[in-house]
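Subject: Interface between my chains keeps coming out wrong

I've been trying for a while to get a sensible model of this assembly. When I model each chain on its own everything looks fine, but I need the whole thing in one frame so I can look at the contacts. Pasting all components below, labels as-is. Any help appreciated, I'm running out of ideas.
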Amino acid sequence: MGTLTLDAISRRYATTVAVERVDLDVAQGEFVALLGPSGCGKTTTLRMVAGFVPPSSGRILIAGRDVTKAPPHGRDTGMVFQSYALFPHMTVGENVAFGLEMRKVARAERDARVREALRLARLEGLADRLPRQLSGGQQQRVALARALVVNPAVFLLDEPLSNLDAKLRAEVRIEIRALQQRLGLTTLFVTHDQEEALTMADRLVVMERGRVRQIGTAEALYERPADAFVAGFIGRCNLLRGTPEAPGRFRTPGGALLPCLPQQAHHGQVLALRPERIAVATAGDGLAARLVAVTYLGAQTEYHLDLAGTRLLAIAPTPAEGDPRRALAPGDAVLALWDPAEARLLPAEPGDLPDDAT
Amino acid sequence: MAALLLPATLLVLGLLVAPMAMLFRISLNRYDAAQMMQEALTAENYLRALADPYYREVMATTLGVALSSTLLALLIGFPAAYWLARMESRWKSLATILTLFPLLVGNVVRAAGWMALLGRDGAINAALIGTGLIAEPLPMLYTTGAVIAGILAVVAPYMILTLAAVIEAIPRSVEEAAANLGAGPLTSFRRVVLPLALPGVAAGCVLVFILCMNAYATPVLLGGPQFKMMAPAVYDQFVRGTNWPFGAALAFLLLIVTLVLTILGSTILAGRSRSR
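Reply #2:
Try treating it as a single job with all components included. I did that and got this:
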């Protein structure tokens, strides 16, 4: 059990920078997810914590001890690999016992702890099987049990759910989270799946091209993204280019003046507006827009709007039968309305905006 | 599909099985100084070879050289194979070609090189005498050591490439998992890498052992006239003594001993890897 501190760790290769000055503090018992597109450096960061990749600079502290120079077997981390990496020539029981053997735990205690770990992972009765005789989900639980049985100071998970089918993934997600909370494990979790990160982690670290873009709770990242990349990566978001004019006014290239949160003009050049915060109406207040497409999705309906040349996506609960909005069709004139506080100016770097942000 | 196997099957039948059958038939004939051999069905060639202390010694030398060369090839080859298998850079294909390099030179040419290196007036003795470390040349050529060194240079590439293929198939993450669970490099090797590489160890040893048992040019050129292994002894009977029946019997004894030891060895290794 312990804390984990990354102090400005970097990993540079001859021509590329895989990780650049990442700072992170993980508290005792906290579950932190490293999230980002592939190639963002999240796996390299995890592998530096495990000791498989030496940092080019910076320090790594586990439970207050500087382990930057320590070999992998001297770090007291428990890792679950994406491929599970079970020992194919050992039984399930031998796999789980391996870490205890290495720690010279006495036979009787070892047996008891293996039994307990197998019970926690719901693998009773499978101790004498070989890994190849198990299903993917069972192999995944063996990998979990093997990493947890040694009570590691830090628990490391490298996309452990990516090889499971969708239904199993949802179950295992809940299982891992429950286990982590019950055992109070300090956990670092790598994933490219934002839903996985949002549902499991206490805090998320959004990475992109080797750098940390933002660290925060799921709610903080969604409601108060630090930049256009985070806004676009976490959930769906309208990201509009244009010019901040007067405080609270944003001019689109097509000339429309959009209301937004005032006094942020220095803050950035991109207006971020979540689609579900835009109300679409047929009468009343709002900016005039033309409906380009309507997508009925059962509980929700997506409205693709054209607002003086700017494309805008709005998502709303599907209106009740008889509501005039139910009959909306492409080409119709509508009104789009939002609370100006929901439209935020964000800084953006080149490449942060996908070409069709809506 | 079955029809596609026909050419290979015919080739094996015509060029391997038929000559072997003929050779076996010859080994049962009787030697005759005048007409070379008489048609017969006798085991006397085999009995003579088994009874003769000279050929027993030749067989013992052959086994000794083959077993120690195989063991040394394994000890030298494993680290090299591991290094080769875990290599990631673009130099990997170059390293593979360099491993194969000794095989690009014929046995005789290579042995001549060893002779130039190890002889009384060879490069090593010249250097040692030149620096004043020794006064008299060291006897290195025409020793068992010279033969083993020469054979090793031939068989090491086979061992290394066989082992590397198996080690490459062991996922690196499995080794990382061992390290993550607290195993140091030696423990990780003993408990994870070696057990998983056992099939490759078995295959490499069998291949190399067979090559060693049948070595010809290297023992003749580096062992000198006094040094005898089985393959040169068989050659002597066929070409110098023109005693084909006895030569054939010696060849079959060599084949049988090699086969029995190969089967025995691989059975033991296979058993080990299964029980783990």
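Reply #3:
Confirming on my end. Chain A is about 25% helix and 30% strand.
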